[in-house]
Design goal:
Layout (H helix, E strand, L loop, with lengths): L1 H16 L6 E4 L5 E4 L2 E5 L11 E6 L7 E4 L25 E4 L2 E9 L10 E12 L16 E2 L7 E5 L12 E6 L9 E8 L10 E5 L6 E2 L7 E4 L2
Parallel strand pairs: 1-10
Antiparallel strand pairs: 2-3, 3-11, 4-13, 5-12, 6-7, 6-15, 7-11, 7-13, 8-9, 8-10, 8-12, 14-15
Bound molecules: calcium ion (CA) (4 copies).
């Protein structure tokens, strides 16, 4: 009896000491959404007429299928970050501010391009970190960077599962919206750096992945938010 009680107490203590449970957010159905560390993530398929509206600020693509990571900068491109016009510095003023249920968020789009096979269509967003810095050409990640203002993995190894086929599989149409609480974007630094790592849980393949912002003013009525209109503020 005494031994059983001891085992019970040890089990309770072990449970209390274990790290917070990791979250796997599944955005594999139309309009599905969820929250990780106060940021809202939502599956989103824009109308194809949106071509030209989206302005990518970082393009990431693995050389071979697998894991890829990168971030936007005007400086040296690291990891699997691609050069050219699709990767550049980003000022906070260029990131749309939207209000959802009376809370202000900064809005980002992710456009993934995956092969359409049964397994290939899936892609995981395994890390997402946002930093604010004084200049737009930093490199040497993460040593030369300030602490992140947002991290997907605060509190556990969280990740997001995407299904590229909902938006047609390829590039040119966004797959996910990310809403990061605006209250986190404080301080004098105006350059936004978005670091992400994809493909750990579900492999990256086929075309590149791109994070983007949509120039204001645009108004969307989003599925999955109960038809709620998101007001873009000037
Ligand atoms: Ca896509
Ligand atoms: Ca894949
Ligand atoms: Ca993670
Ligand atoms: Ca891809």
């Amino acid at each position: 009896m005494c031994k059983a009680f001891t085992i019970f107490v040890v089990a309770i203590l072990a449970l209390a000491a274990s790290p917070a449970m990791a979250v796997m957010l599944e955005l594999t159905n139309v309009g599905s959404q969820g929250t990780i560390n106060d940021a809202i993530f939502q599956q989103f398929s824009p109308q194809p007429t949106g071509t030209g509206l989206i302005d990518p600020f970082v393009r990431i693509q693995a050389k071979k299928d697998g894991v890829e990571e990168g971030y936007n900068t005007d400086g040296e491109r690291e990891f699997e970050t691609k050069g050219g016009n699709f990767t550049h510095s980003l000022l906070l003023s260029a990131v749309p501010l939207v209000t959802i249920n009376s809370v202000n968020y900064r809005e980002f789009f992710l456009d993934i391009g995956e092969n359409e096979s049964e397994e290939g269509r899936y892609l995981s967003v395994d890390e997402l970190k946002i930093h604010l810095e004084a200049v737009g050409d930093l490199s040497g990640y993460p040593d030369n960077f300030s602490d992140s203002i947002y991290s997907l993995d605060d509190g556990g190894d969280n990740w997001i599962k995407l299904n590229a086929n909902i938006s047609g599989g390829g590039n040119g149409r966004a797959d996910m919206l990310a809403y990061i609480p605006n209250v986190l974007f404080t301080g004098p630094n105006q350059y936004v750096y978005l670091y992400s790592k994809l493909g750990v849980n579900f492999s990256a393949d086929n075309g590149p992945e791109e994070w983007a912002c949509v120039p204001e003013p645009v108004t969307f009525a989003l599925l999955g938010l109960g038809g709620l209109f998101l007001r873009r503020r000037k």
